[in-house]
Amino acid sequence: VPAGVPALLWRVVVVVGGYWSLWFVDDRIFTMGDIGDTQYVLAMSEDAGEHLWKTPIGPRWEDQYGGPRATPTVDGDHVYAMGTQGDLVCLEAETGKEVWRRNMVDDFGGDLMKAMGTYDWRYAESPLVDGDRVVVTPGAQDAMVVALDKRTGEEIWRAAIPELGEAGADGAGYSSVVVSNGGGVRQYVQLVGRGLIGLEAETGRFLWGYNRVANDVANISTPIIDGDYVFASTGYGTGSALVRLVPDGDGVRAEEVYFLEADVMQN
Is 183 in a helix, a strand, or coil? Predict the structure, then answer.
């Protein structure tokens, strides 16, 4: 091995296909993958790469890309993961045993934005664990985002959103929820089919929306939070935007700082 190059400790073929990453906790690696006709949440040993357990989350997803599109979230003794069919599971981190399960479509009437009005790439969200809750995005107009008790899966609140504008398409996008304290209000920020939204963390109350950054094919990237600012970018000829969150009565409003056309910045 050349000087300065890390030595290879082990190599293992875990799964093929998908858009996911790895979560390292202590001596374990958590991820997802399709094996045969089934989609799994997986735990591997960090020192040898061998499977410690694999728990089915749903059927294998077949399209031109294949595989799951999310990274599991590890919180203490539990792992939370979202499958492509909208199955959200809570598993024991030690054993992979299923604790509870909810489905974005069956339980909340969820849906994803449709490219050209007909096709979507299924659920692609890494669950947010925040305190006593897990927050995910079914994509229904009356349940765009939901907060669930992380111990039981019981619903704490569901957030309805109003019409945000003509750009984009109805439903969830392919992004993950992030936390902001912009404008002095703790809130969950998400990029959905119609653009950016902010929801009061405690209650799910809709605070603000920003439509201009949405495209009608796939809104994918996770918003970037910096103090009172939120940056978001989408592709397919749309562009990027920075908004500033400012107090507005007992709520918050989003003021556009700038918008960059697609030939300057799109992601």
Answer: helix
